[in-house]
Design goal:
inorganic pyrophosphatase (n-terminal core); alpha/beta; Diaminopimelate Epimerase, Chain A, domain 1; 339 residues; six-stranded parallel beta sheet
């Protein structure tokens, strides 16, 4: 945790206590750390008697998250569909920059709205009034757990399982290199509070629509290798998905890129989805982030993420998208392909 964690925790506590109407959000293409973190914070704020609004944000509300307690609190709205001046506090979680709040346009906060960031991405641009950022934490939900502990919050089973889901997801099932004994100890405590955690994880992981499986097939059949077989990239076009009646939201929680990472020979893997004509969503995974930090590759493409998992969005042609990805890897990792 950052050296000023206790000071920031005190500031956040004071700000929350004095805020009657609080806004939360999910970042675009939300993962369980975004959803679970927003629900955990939202449920706690509601128990405090606050008026809480949780925005689904840019992406369609994914029903695969409906197993998480409090899911019905999420409203299918973007930040541009609410009156920001109606809120006292905007808690911005798991988001490195304003485009991670919404990429639909520039966001201007009214002077009456207090803003607070809670995030675990070291690339966070710290654009709020209060910024709690810990790039060493494997998940925003781990930061939330520590905040709740400092505040002596009694975690309900509902809050606990939302935090557990975020921890489990962002650590890639506790296999990510930034998973620590502290992470596992937190997970154990959360599991004690909600022993039904395994059923909810099972529901989350087994809620894919058939289209998501068809998408996985497209990914696997489109893999091409580069750098003497050390890098694997799969690009799936909008036309390919349309031919299989696959809508982009059906691919949001796809495990395709993690499946590619399981290949022993591929040091870096990348899945590229054309979300709409000319717009490509890039997802990276690294076998060894100490050597191949894919957050650098994502940053070179205008994105962000972690050393082992990162992403970006490119607005280019298909060929230029592939070329830019390969060029970024060439410049960042000159030893690739040198067997």
């Amino acid at each position: 945790m950052p050296d000023n964690f206790t000071t920031l925790a005190t500031q956040i506590w004071s700000t929350v206590q004095s805020s009657s109407r609080v806004l939360l959000h999910l970042h675009p293409s939300p993962d369980p750390d975004s959803v679970g973190g927003a629900l955990a914070m939202g449920l706690w704020l509601r128990d405090l008697g606050k008026q809480v609004t949780i925005l689904a944000g840019d992406s369609p509300l994914n029903q695969s998250y409906s197993a998480l307690p409090g899911f019905d609190l999420i409203q299918p709205l973007t930040v541009f569909q609410v009156d920001l001046s109606a809120f006292v506090l905007f808690i911005i979680q798991d988001s490195t920059s304003l485009p991670r709040v919404s990429a639909l346009g520039p966001i201007t906060f009214p002077s009456s709205l207090h803003t607070l960031i809670i995030d675990h991405h070291s690339a966070n641009t710290r654009f709020a009034e209060i910024n709690l950022v810990d790039g060493q934490a494997p998940a925003t939900c781990q930061l939330l757990y520590h905040l709740f502990s400092v505040w002596s919050v009694t975690l309900t089973p509902e809050i606990a399982v939302n935090l557990f889901a975020g921890l489990y997801s962002d650590t890639l099932g506790f296999s990510a290199p930034d998973t620590t004994s502290d992470t596992l100890a937190i997970a154990a405590r959360l599991a004690e509070i909600n022993p039904g955690f395994s059923k909810i994880l099972s529901d989350l992981e087994n809620a894919q629509p058939p289209a998501a499986i068809y998408f996985l097939g497209l990914v696997l059949s489109s893999v091409k290798t580069y750098f003497s077989g050390q890098v694997a990239i799969s690009l799936v076009t909008a036309d390919q998905m349309s031919a299989k009646n696959i809508a982009y939201p059906d691919t949001e929680n796809s495990s395709a890129v993690d499946l590619l990472r399981s290949c022993r020979d591929w040091l870096i893997v990348c899945v590229v989805r054309e979300t709409q004509p000319g717009i490509f969503r890039v997802s990276f995974r690294s076998k060894d982030p100490r050597i191949y930090d894919v957050s650098l590759a994502a940053a070179a493409l205008g994105g962000s993420g972690h050393p082992y998992a990162a992403g970006a969005t490119l607005t280019l042609s298909q060929s230029d998208t592939l070329a830019k990805i390969v060029d970024s890897l060439v410049s960042l990792y000159p030893t690739l392909g040198q067997i």
